[in-house]
Amino acid sequence: EVQLVESGGGLVQPGGSLRLSCAASGFNFGTYWMSWVRQAPGKGLEWVANIEEDGSEKYYVDSVKGRFTISRDNAKNSVYLQMNSLRVEDTAVYYCARDTGWSEYWGQGTLVTVSS
Amino acid sequence: DIQMTQSPSSLAASVGDRVTMTCRASQGIGSHLAWYQQKPGKLPKVLIYSASTLQSGVPSRFSGSGSGTDFTLTISSLQPEDVATYYCQKYNSAPRTFGQGTKVEIK
Question: Are strands B45-49 and B102-106 parallel, antiparallel or unpaired?
Answer without folding.
Answer: unpaired
